[in-house]
Design goal:
The protein is of the alpha+beta class and 66 residues long. It has helices at residues 25-34, 50-55, 57-65; strands spanning 6-11, 17-22. A two-stranded antiparallel sheet has the order 1-2. The protein is globular and about 30 Å long.
């Protein structure tokens, strides 16, 4: 994982994992739109751009698992 991207393996359950690689705002918005339970993440201060997403990577990973 680089400092400017949000990528990596996210465990969805014990049997299922998803590989995520977000490189820009367009990709981030598409991901948030595809997750009906998390649309507010598209514009949240902790995820409003690549720098914020990188700084808040651990928090965002936890939120995706909820």
């Amino acid at each position: 994982m680089t400092a400017r991207t949000l990528d990596g393996l996210l465990m969805v359950s014990l049997e299922q994992a998803v590989v995520v690689s977000i490189r820009n705002q367009r990709e981030w918005r598409r991901l948030c739109a595809a997750l009906p339970a998390r649309p507010e993440l598209a514009d949240a201060p902790r995820s409003h751009d690549n720098t914020a997403r990188a700084e808040n990577r651990a928090t965002l990973r936890r939120e995706f698992r909820e």
